[in-house]
Amino acid sequence: MTDGCDAFRPLHRPTAEAPLAGLTVLVVEDSRFASEALRLMCLRSGARIRRADCLRSAERHLATYRPSVVIVDPGLPDGSGLDLIRGLDALVPRVPVILATSGDPAAETPARIAGAQGFLPKPLHSLAAFQSAVIEALPLHARKSRRAVREVTIRPDPLTLHEDLAMADRQLSMAGGGARLDYIAQFLAGLGRGSSDSDLLDAAKSLRGVPPAEAARRVGAVRALVTARLRAGA
Questions:
Q1: Could you name the CATH architecture of 6-142?
Q2: Which of 99, 125, 132, 213 suits a disulfide with 148, CB 3.0-4.6 Å?
Q3: 141-160 in b/e burial notation, b at 16+ Cβ within 10 A?
Q4: Domain-by-domain residue ranges, the chain?
């Protein structure tokens, strides 16, 4: 692993077109759609990227190398991303940049309390906002010669949204209640916001706090909507 200083001795120096050159970004995100947006942003910015889709995968990455930047979605399938943020914040040496990302604005305050230095609201479309959030969180000496580029809108491949919907459909087919249903609800809500799909967002909200007697009916209705989206995009 590198120490905090080594993280900013890049082989590739930042340029006006690639202000994040020399940085390695670990994205801890369960959504393929959101991950694809971040992948495109990193590529346009000159940064290297690795992805983990759950806490366990993130821990494997972090056991073998130290990234310059970690971006964490608080809602993960195997636990809370806030726990990961707290752990990263407590590392010695600390991971230089820790950011949180979510489609729920209420997630920002808990993420910052846990140790995140910045927050990326979903949907993730603004390249300049992404670059600015990373640069502003860097140590002062590492910000030199790094300036966000002019605004560019990033549009992920629609196929990744289809992959997310397929994953949600699999989760719904096995859904019971409690924490698992809450996770599916927040995942679908993120897809609804990211794709500007108000019906999907409303469906996700209908899964929150479902009485046990209502769970099967509501899950069936939401799954029917997800299936229709999959067929439309096939």
A1: 3-Layer(aba) Sandwich (3.40)
A2: 132
A3: ebbeebebeeeeebebeeeb
A4: 6-142, 158-233
